Amino acid sequence: MKIKEGAIIAGISARHLHLSTSHLETLFGAGASLTNYKDLRQPGQYACDEKVTIVGPKGSFENVRVLGPVRKDTQIEISMTDALKLGLTPPIRDSGDIEGTPGVELVGPKGSVKLDKGLIIAKRHIHMLPEDAEYYGVKDKDLVAVFCDTKGRKGILMDVLIRVSPKFALEFHVDTDESNAVMLKTGDLVHIVEL
Fold first, then answer.
1. Distance (Å, rounded) from C-alpha 74 to C-alpha 194?
2. Which of 2.40.50.140, 2.130.10.10, 2.40.40.20, 1.10.357.140 would CATH assign to domain 2-11+124-194?
3. How far apart (Å, rounded) are the C-alpha atoms in residues 174 and 157?
4. Are 41 and 10 in contact (CB under 8 A)?
5. Where do the structural domains in the chain lie, given as residue ranges?
6. What whole-number distance in Å separates Cα of residue 54 and Cα of residue 62?
7. Measured between alpha carbons, how far is 108 from 103 in angstroms, rounded to an integer?
8. Full-model pTM
9. Residue 129 in contact with residue 165, Cβ under 8 Å?
10. Beta bridge partners of 3
11. How far is the CA of 147 from the CAs of 3, 103, 128, 156, 193, in angstroms?
12. Which residues are CB-neighbours of 48 under 8 A, at least 6 positions away?
């Protein structure tokens, strides 16, 4: 195993959702807008004060945080453990790829929405600027391996998607199932490796 120079900060994604404008207004009332609770590491992205309940065939989750800004399509991102509680089997997908995915019901303070699609398990990925991609010798949509040098649970995660944009900040994203498996926390450092 060869570790590439240059550590990458990790960000752990708990269950959350992105809303379209129409669904935002259905759930929170006509003319509703998202309220910034806390800026996220990715430029222009933020956690919102707004929260909803996600309802599946077998279970539900209350107080699931909305992330802003609004998007063209509503998308819900959960872990496999979450999916089991909801009673659904969403595919592992890149963000925005929601065709053919299961839907759920979203319940807000002013109304509810029954979605016919939008539930995914987000593919683990690294956000990069173009200059980061050049430094690491990768390009958009490449798959790499990432070494997590954590105490007692060191591990290599395969099939990590590279996402390159001038709008991104360098950051490795995994969900709570994946982070728990290797004892990784937000702010920990990981490395791209050549096997």
1. 36
2. 2.40.40.20
3. 10
4. no
5. 2-11+124-194, 14-122
6. 6
7. 16
8. 0.94
9. yes
10. 193
11. 8, 34, 17, 4, 6
12. 34, 35, 36, 37, 65, 66, 67, 68
Alpha carbon of residue 64 to chain centroid = 13
Token digits for 46? 């933020």
Residues in the chain, total:
195
| Residue 24: other Cβ atoms inside 10 A | 25
Q: pLDDT digit string (tens) for 37-69?
A: 999 999 999 999 999 999 999 999 999 999 999
**Can you read off the two tokens belonging to residue 16?**
């959350």
| Whole-number Å distance between alpha carbons of 166 and 129 | 5
Query: What's residue 26's pLDDT?
Result: 98
Alpha-carbon dihedral angle through residues 94, 86, 156, 43, given to the nearest 10 degrees: 50
Query: What pLDDT, in 10s, does the model give residues 140-182?
Result: 999 999 999 998 899 999 999 999 999 999 999 999 999 999 9
Q: For residue 1, what are the contacts with CB-CB under 8 A and spacing of at least 6?
A: 147, 156, 193, 194, 195
